[in-house]
Every structure is written in C-alpha cells, then in structure tokens.
Design goal:
With about 120 residues, chain A is mainly alpha-helical. Chain A is about 95% helix and about 0% strand. Chain A is rod-shaped and about 155 Å long. In chain B, helix 1 (about 5-105) packs across helix 5. The chains are: A mainly alpha (about 120), B alpha+beta (about 210).
C-alpha cells in the first residue's frame, strides 16, 4: 500500500481528507445558515400575514363604528328636521283653520243656495 | 504545491462557501422582507378600500333613512293640514244642516225653497206628478200654493197621501210611478256631496278638492 511505503503520500491524503472534512463542515454550516434564513423568512412572512389580517380587521371595525355614528347622527338630525316640519305644519294648519273658520258663514250660505235654490 | 498554499486554497474555498451561504441567506431574508412589506401595503390598500366601501354604504343608508324620516314628517304635516280642512268642511256641513232645519221652520222662506225644488224636479219629470212632502209641511200645500206651483212648473200636481221624513224638501213622482226625483235636503246634500265639498273648499281655502 502506498501509505505504508510512502509516509509523505500518507500525509498528503490526511491533509486532503482534512480539507474535504473542513469543506463538508463549511457546506453543512452554509446549508444550516440557509435553512435558518428560510425559517426566519417564513416566520417573517407569516408575521406579516397576521399583521395584514389585523390591519384589515381593525380598519373594518373602525369603519363600522364610524358608519354607526354616521347613521345615528343622520337620524338625529333628520328627527330634529322632522320635528321642525311638523311644528311648522301644525302652525300652518292652525293659521289655515283660523282663516277658513272666518269664511264658514260664506261657505254655508253658498251651499244653502245650491241645495235650496234660494 | 506547498502546504501553506494548500491551506490558503482551502481557506479560500471555505470562505467562498460561507460567503455564498451568507449571500443566499441574505437574499432569502430580503425577499421575505419585500414580501412582508408588500403584504402590509396590500393590507393597507384593502383596509382603505373596505373602509371606503363601509362608509359609502353608511352614508347611502343615512341618506335613505333621513329621506324616509323627512318624507314621513312631510306626509304627517300634509295629513294634519288635510284633517284641519276636513274638520272645517265638516263644520260647514253641520252648520248647513242646522241652517236647513231653521229654513224649514221659517214658513215664508221654506215656501220659496219648496217652490224652487218642485219646479226644478218638475223639469226632470216633464209630466204631471205626485208630490210627496213631510207630514208637517202638508199645511203649506194649499190649493192656492199648488196652483202657483203648477203655473210655475207647467205641469199638474197631486199631493200624495204618503208622507216623507227628513229635515225638509220634496219628492216628485210621475203619475205612472216610473220616474222619481228626490229633492229632500238630505238627498240633495248627499247627491251633490263631492261638488258641494269642492265648493266649500273653494270658498274656505280658495281651492278645489280640499
């Protein structure tokens, strides 16, 4: 065998074996580093997905609250306006009644004339 | 190749492996960061769009609700006005009934009214007729009055044994019983109710159909 007969050849092989070992170790570490980076990347994306979901959820909740408030405010304002309309309507009706009551004798006379012919 | 050169080469190979791995890891993380950033941006855009849609819908609903409340109030105000007008018209009709009753008790005036009603009814009958009157009015229909009526109407009248009720007026029936004109106050009021209501509304409110 060459190693048995040539010590220098033996020493060279050991060095090669050592070198291969070191390269393999470096490759293993590199692979580990990449895997770690992939895991970190996956966690990063998952975290971003959760955050994205949360952003949309919060925005929807906030908007729904605002929507409720918009509706409440609109109803409140409309009810105030409705009260005003009713109050004005009641005043107009009362005014119309007063004016019309003054003309009741005239209307009675006209109808009597139509019914009786006098 | 010397040992030191070999070691140097090995060291360089290992460095290349490490640097490649570092670059690859960095690339993976950078891509993930970009993707994460993109996800956040998309989420913000989606959140904005959802928010806009919800608020837009809310504003539409608020406008509908507002319109419904206002329309309801306007309708109630209009109904109140119509109710008021109706009350005054009813008041007029109630006064008319009282006035007609008063007329039926005023012999002179009532005679004139009866004459008008009979002449008008006679124009519709167009031939000799039977007069149906209230029991208490029978005394008004003297021969002289009937003769006056016949002259005015141009037809002959006969006072019926049968009496009518109500607050006044007459019923004329042709002798053959085929034609009848009911000119009692109640029927005249009822028959011309719509027209009279319009007339009352015109006088009271200056409009038709009140």
């Amino acid at each position: 065998m060459l190693l048995d007969v040539c010590p220098s050849a033996r020493s060279g092989d050991v060095m090669i074996a050592q070198a291969i070992g070191e390269i393999q170790e470096a490759e293993r570490k590199a692979e580990q580093r990449i895997q770690q980076a992939e895991a970190e990347a996956k966690a990063l994306v998952e975290q971003a997905e959760r955050e994205a979901e949360e952003i949309v959820k919060k925005a929807v909740q906030q908007a729904e609250k605002e929507a409720e408030s918009i509706l409440k405010q609109a109803v409140k304002e409309a009810e105030q306006e409705a009260e005003k309309i009713l109050a004005e309507g009641a005043a107009r009706a009362e005014e119309e009644r007063k004016k019309a009551e003054e003309r009741v004798p005239q209307a009675v006379e006209r109808i009597i004339s139509l019914v009786s012919g006098i | 190749m010397s040992v030191s050169v070999q070691k140097e080469n090995l060291s360089r190979i290992i460095s290349v492996i490490e640097e490649d791995a570092a670059r690859e890891a960095e690339k993976i993380l950078k891509e993930a960061q970009t993707k994460a950033e993109e996800l956040r941006k998309q989420a913000e855009q989606e959140a904005e769009a959802r928010r806009d849609e919800i608020l837009k819908r809310a504003r539409r609903e608020a406008e509908r609700e507002r319109a419904r409340i206002i329309a309801g109030a306007r309708l109630r105000a209009k109904k109140q006005m119509l109710d008021t007008k109706e009350e005054v018209i009813m008041h007029v009709f109630s006064e008319v009934k009282k006035e007609l009753e008063a007329i039926s008790k005023d012999r002179k005036k009532y005679r004139e009214v009866l004459k008008n009603l009979i002449v008008e009814a006679a124009e519709s009958i167009g031939k000799d007729a039977i007069l149906l009157v209230r029991e208490q009015d029978r005394k008004i229909f003297s021969k002289r009055f009937i003769s006056e009526l016949e002259k005015a109407a141009g037809i002959k009248f006969e006072l019926a044994e049968e009496a009518i009720g109500g607050s006044g007026g007459v019923v004329l029936r042709s002798r053959d019983g085929r034609t009848e004109v009911d000119n009692t106050f109640e029927t005249r009021l009822e028959r011309a109710e719509a027209e009279l209501r319009n007339e009352a509304a015109r006088v009271l409110f200056g409009q038709v159909g009140g």
